[in-house]
Amino acid sequence: MRASMPTESRNDENCVLRVSIFLTQGDRADQQDCFGYFLHDKEGFFAVCDGMGGRDGGAIASRLAVDNILAGYEEHYPVGDVQRFLEESAKNASDRILELQTPNGEPLGAGSTCVQVLIRDCDMYWSSVGDSRLYLLRGEEFLQLTIDQTYGTVLAEQYKSGIIDAETYIHESGTRKAEALISYLGMTQLELVGCSVDPIKVETGDRIVIMSDGLYKLVPDDEMKRVLINFRNLREAIHALEQKAYKNAKYQEKSRDNMTVMIIEVK
Asked: pTM for the whole thing?
């Protein structure tokens, strides 16, 4: 497991960003989560990816995605059309993963989720693919900004619109099928990329939290919110979330997945 020392960046609007990251392998045989970030004087760029596809495929896919995304950011810095960049960044990473092959020349069949966040002059832009999540804590509000791109989300929309009845919804959403991704990096044609419609103006005291599913599948939103409010020190907050996940897994007798948590604080 690894935790970062908080790092700072200041931009022209006196928006200081501090970031701390925690990553753990959990009970898995290998680590398939990956993250990366850049902090410049004027902005911060952050990415978290959660790989999938066999023992090695997921790790290769998430690392390739992060490397490709960060390389693209460095190449185009300072990015002009931020939202377009985030969408194209995800699609470029997806194409690179799709090209991966086994030693026999067969498609590797790997994939990855991805959340990207760019904060410039206190404006936050984001994009997401898959079911890794982005949250914003502001005061007493803890909002999930991303929408899980899973079959379960499709079921919820179908139930809400009356396409399926309650019995079907309850039955289907209680199966493992509900967790199946409908969008991920490495698809033959990546069409669904979640994006911020307009930038969100971040404020002093805000906390932006990016995470893989290894956290939120063990720690409910209300528990995460309490931790983030009660622990003002970034390192203490991030380790408290880790302890929550550890204890909940023990109590629920669940195997722990890889888990990555990145907290960005606006000072």
From this structure: 0.93
